[in-house]
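Sorry to interrupt, but I need a hand with the structure work. Could you write out one complete protein record for me, on any chain you like? Could you add the entry underneath, on a fresh line?
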Amino acid sequence: GDTLSELAALDPDRPACACREMTKLHEEIRRGTLRELAAWAASELRGELTLVLAARARAAPAAPGEATYAGVVGV
């Protein structure tokens, strides 16, 4: 629960998957945002848990401008 809470504080809307008790009779897989999974884990979590996080969204690169080219050519 603590790890999920810490991750949710950093990036609450990041998609993730929590797999509980994998390969066992009561296996459970939950998908949601880190915020949603942290709330679930705070009230119901027992047993082993494996977390799979989606890749972080990257910001679109800025269009190259005059300043960018000036730095490349040493102007």
User: Anything to note?
Assistant: The chain has three helices and three strands. The longest strand covers residues 15-20. The radius of gyration is 20 Å.
